[in-house]
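Lecture notes, structural biology module. Today: joint structure prediction for complexes of two components.
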Amino acid sequence: MNILLETAAIILFGSGVLFMLVGSLGLLRLPDFFTRTHASGKVDSVGMMLCLGGLALHEGPTLSGLKLVLVIAFVAVSSPVAAHALARAAVRSGLKPWRAPGQGGPDR
Amino acid sequence: MRTPPVAGPFAPARRVPLGLVVQGLLLMALWLALSGMYDAFHLGLGALSVVCVLWLNARLRRARPIGPGRTEVHVLRFVAYCGWLLGQIVLSALHVAAVVLTPRMPVSPRVVRFRSDQPNDVARMLLACSITLTPGTLTVEVDADEFTVHALTGATARGLLDGTMQAKVARLFSDGPGRAVYDVRWEEG
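The predicted structure, tokenised, for the full assembly:
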């Protein structure tokens, strides 16, 4: 039972780290502000929630485990609001989303 | 807020809504559970934080009152929705990861507007947050029942426009929801 829990925790934490790596890669590779917000605001927060979930499993039903679950809930609520606020501010200040070449976007 | 003066010797000088007192007590309980330090300094910090949060909440409520429509939620449906959303988040996170890791990176960002009949403002907020929380789609603007969404690829946009999420959110609050998705317009670059 304990080994099962530990394995699940390691898998969760490992996949969380992978998602955060992909989020950082996306931040570097993607073409404009909006697409980068997808990478930093969402893929990263999925990675963070997976990491925290793994830690909560590892911690078990203790006060620290409860705190980790609370942090996951706060990230789930605050991360989309922050990403939305950034995107809305960008649109309102006149930033145009990048378009792939051949779809009305700049040919490059 | 203002209550009429009460006659009698035991009339309290000031009254506050019961909801505010309950909210303050719950916040303080959360602080005590999370802080674990019970000396005067940390208790004082907690009380100060609770007052600040209550003040911010009261300001928010005055600034933007929640519109009409029943905001009571079907609890079981909400729990089921959270599970479904979690699955969607994982699926689309894998999709976005695959796109980012493909060497030529086949992104084709699109902006799409659509309308969705939702029973109240809380449902609209929940839908906007759910769209943003799902990797690959980002809510840019919500204006009444019109949602503007930035999608990383055509696939993520089409996944959103099939109306599953919109219908599920509407069904959390009411049994006879209206149209899930209509009036779809793709923004031309």
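Point to remember: The mean pLDDT of chain A is 84.
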